[in-house]
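Narrative of accomplishments. A recurring question from our advisory board has been how the design workflow behaves on a single, concrete structure rather than in aggregate. To address it, we present the structure tokens for one chain from the evaluation set, followed by the sequence designed for it. No filtering or post-editing was applied between the two.
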């Protein structure tokens, strides 16, 4: 039996279309900034490594390992942010939590663009960079839980998968925007200009973006999404969108923890394959295959275009066929094709269009998991712990399988000389995710959020 307790959860009401759209935009924009920033850090990893971690002419691999170690540190603070801001969002409200995290993310990212390098202040530079990365990790950890809760709780009946997919779609938009900025800078600036000041520009651009996000989030309804959650049932008597009245019940001891662990398993392949093909690929192509910076970025843009193209259709399809069917298909696709696609990219004799198609297909496979993923996680947790629970599952999965992807791949390739490591990594994690995803019920998409 569950015991109702007082709290911020209110009786469900019908969402007005304007409120639903406002929740969708406000939830998406902060996520766009988050992934734009994480993308540009990955794309400029070789530059950041030279300016902050290997000022005395250390090897490129050594610098990349240190840069990705700083990258991973931020991810390991994501679960802390998910717990702190998720609890805040569950207890106080979604809007204030989302306002705080976007301010923290914007401030920390803009400060990176102003940070003195090792040549200016010595050993303090990498430590300050790591501190700012930690602040970004805390804010990013709180971003996902609040944003996905708002977007799925306010979704119209039968469109929860599509609304949640916008969270993943803004991941693609953020990564593509970061890649576009990197390509432009690499094309118009010399190498010395790029290392001297050009790398700062994309970080400073987050300041106006953050102000736009702040304004949008301040316009969210003050009572939070629980006051707006739709309760209209789908044909057959099951409410297909919104939170049901049982959302105010306290979960049984250990129930949330078990759901978090299961959520990590279901997300593992999405996290690992996503970062392998969408973020880590540029530095892998440069350091391992000797590809130029511009060509490596172009390949990453193609992978991200494939990712973006499949996300919204996958989310919409999951509203019809179920989350399990679509996400398992994506995980199986990556598990089966990761190595063959990587071999094609590595082949110096393969035509450029074939390599581009391979990277596009890899991104599309990740999109099949990322589209339904946010709605799948939201459906695992009751309203009272939704921000915390889905935020922790997402943050833990990303901390272990995304944040460490660049570090693991770069270090293992350097030690073993095996250039197939990225393919093995993506395939193995997706295979584990298939097993976890098969535990989903086929009709979860038709049930009301708890």
């Amino acid at each position: 039996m569950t015991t109702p307790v007082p709290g911020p959860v209110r009786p469900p009401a019908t969402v007005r279309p304007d409120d639903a759209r406002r929740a969708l935009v406000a939830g998406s924009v902060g996520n766009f900034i988050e992934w734009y920033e994480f993308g540009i850090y990955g794309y400029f990893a070789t530059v950041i490594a030279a300016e902050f971690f290997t000022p005395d002419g250390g090897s490129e691999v050594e610098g990349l390992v240190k840069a990705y170690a700083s990258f991973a540190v931020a991810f390991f603070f994501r679960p802390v942010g998910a717990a702190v801001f998720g609890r805040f969002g569950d207890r106080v409200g979604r809007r204030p939590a989302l306002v705080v995290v976007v301010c923290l993310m914007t401030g920390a990212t803009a400060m990176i663009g102003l940070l003195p390098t090792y040549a200016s202040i010595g050993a303090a530079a990498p430590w300050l960079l790591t501190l700012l990365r930690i602040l970004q990790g805390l804010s990013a950890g709180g971003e996902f839980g609040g944003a996905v809760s708002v977007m799925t709780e306010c979704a119209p009946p039968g469109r929860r998968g599509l609304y949640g997919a916008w969270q993943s779609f803004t991941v693609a938009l953020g990564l593509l925007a970061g890649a576009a900025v990197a390509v432009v800078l690499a094309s118009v600036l010399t190498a010395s200009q790029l290392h001297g000041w050009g790398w700062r520009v994309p970080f400073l651009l987050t300041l106006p973006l953050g102000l736009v996000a702040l304004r949008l989030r301040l316009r969210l309804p003050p009572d939070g999404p629980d006051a707006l959650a739709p309760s209209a049932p789908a044909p057959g008597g099951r409410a297909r969108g919104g939170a049901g009245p049982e959302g105010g019940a306290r979960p049984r001891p250990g129930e949330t923890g078990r759901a978090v662990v299961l959520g990590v398993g279901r997300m593992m392949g999405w996290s690992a394959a996503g970062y392998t093909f969408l973020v880590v690929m540029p530095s892998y192509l440069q350091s391992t295959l000797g590809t130029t910076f511009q060509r490596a970025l172009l390949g990453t843009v193609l992978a991200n275009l494939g990712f973006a193209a499949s996300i919204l259709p996958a989310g919409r399809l999951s509203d019809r066929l179920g989350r399990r069917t679509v996400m398992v298909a994506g995980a199986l696709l990556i598990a089966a094709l990761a190595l063959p696609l990587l071999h094609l990219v590595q082949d110096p004799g393969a035509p450029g269009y074939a390599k581009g198609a391979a990277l596009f297909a890899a991104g599309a496979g990740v999109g099949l998991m990322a589209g339904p993923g946010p709605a799948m996680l939201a459906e695992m947790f009751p309203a009272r712990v939704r921000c915390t629970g889905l935020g922790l599952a997402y943050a833990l999965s990303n901390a272990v399988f995304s944040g460490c992807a660049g570090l693991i791949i770069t270090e293992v390739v350097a030690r073993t000389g095996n250039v197939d490591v990225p393919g093995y990594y993506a395939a193995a994690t997706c295979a584990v995710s298939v097993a976890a995803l098969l535990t989903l019920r086929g009709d979860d998409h038709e049930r009301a959020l708890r």
